[in-house]
Write a structure and sequence with these properties.
Elements: H1 10-39
Length: about 60
């Protein structure tokens, strides 16, 4: 905000800084919700896939030798 005051009126610099702050804050909140929705219950530590019904679809279906 202080760097923009040399080129813009102080009220415009403050407005741009506030809009940028809340814009980034809302984007981060939206992105966290999107990631949480995509992961669901979590990720498997062995293969990294999404856990469904408390089981990994890849690790629990393969037979271990």
């Amino acid at each position: 905000m202080i760097g923009m005051m040399a080129f813009l009126a102080p009220i415009f610099a403050v407005a741009i800084a506030v809009v940028t702050y809340f814009g980034i804050k809302s984007f981060v909140k939206w992105r966290k919700k999107q990631i949480q929705k995509a992961l669901g219950e979590g990720m498997c530590a062995n293969c990294g896939t999404k856990i469904v019904e408390n089981k990994c679809p890849i690790c629990n279906t393969t037979k271990e030798v």
